[in-house]
Design goal:
mainly alpha, 3 helices, 87% helix
């Protein structure tokens, strides 16, 4: 993964977190420093942990799918052509 891809992924994750935090802020009736700190900590924790969990699952899943990955690519290519034709 190049530096541009990493930066673009980080930017996309930050926009996702921003949208969720704005929505959460609009739904809260009362907010104080304690609540804001808890929310910020949990958002940061999930933004850091979820990509790591996905990477771990992906690395383990690769061992099982490596022998048929080309057939899966063919299937999804054909599926997308079928959906676009209709």
């Amino acid at each position: 993964m190049g530096i541009f891809s990493i930066l673009l992924t980080g930017f996309a994750l930050s926009m996702d977190a921003f949208a969720v935090s704005v929505t959460k802020g609009m739904t809260l009736k009362k907010i104080n420093l304690s609540i804001a700190t808890k929310i910020a900590f949990l958002f940061g924790l999930f933004q850091a942990v979820m990509p790591l969990i996905g990477w771990l699952f992906g690395m383990n899943f690769e061992l099982y799918i490596r022998s048929i990955d080309h057939w899966i690519a063919v299937f999804f290519t054909k599926l997308s052509r079928y959906k676009n034709d209709s």
